[in-house]
Amino acid sequence: MDKVHEMAEGDQEFEVELLEAIASSVQELKERYAEAITNRDEKMMHQARHKVRPTVTIFELRKLSKVLENGRQLIETDASDMAFEEHRKEFIQVSNDLLSEIREA
After folding, report:
1. pTM of the prediction?
2. Contacts of 56 (CB under 8 A, 6+ apart)
3. N- or C-end of the chain: fewer Cβ atoms within 10 A?
4. Is 33 buried (19+), middle (13-18) or exposed (0-12) by CB count in 10 A?
5. Per residue in 46-91, pLDDT tens?
6. Do residues 49 and 72 touch, judged by C-beta distance below 8 A?
7. pLDDT, tens digit, 9 for 90 and up, residues 11-40
8. How far is residue 36's CA from residue 42's CA, in Å, rounded to a whole number?
9. DSSP string, the chain
10. What are the DSSP calls for 22-44, one per residue?
11. CA 104 to chain centre
């Protein structure tokens, strides 16, 4: 969470607010995107990715960005159910790791 620390410029209260906002955004993404993957709802996957994109970009959440990009590619290649299930598992793991990192910051 180096980017958050950098943006807060030593203001602990602001840093906490940023972390809470990121956690809220990631939690919402986790719920919606996981559901979309399970249902192979391409529109919902796209909407969930699009909504969180500014947060991912601003705070340089690279692992999450990579997983979301992999999901986009799965849709484009009309991947198998097994590939979508593996993607869902990877997404949940990365989301949980990120939420844990935010709680520890």
Report:
1. 0.90
2. 64, 65, 68
3. C
4. buried
5. 999 999 999 999 999 999 999 999 999 998 998 899 999 999 999 9
6. yes
7. 999 999 999 999 999 999 999 999 999 999
8. 7
9. -HHHHHHHTT-HHHHHHHHHHHHHHHHHHHHHHHHHHHHT-HHHHHHHHHHHHHHHHHTT-HHHHHHHHHHHHHHHTT--HHHHHHHHHHHHHHHHHHHHHHHH-
10. HHHHHHHHHHHHHHHHHHT-HHH
11. 17
CB 15 within 8 A of CB 37: no
Task: Report residue 47 as tokens.
Answer: 């909407």
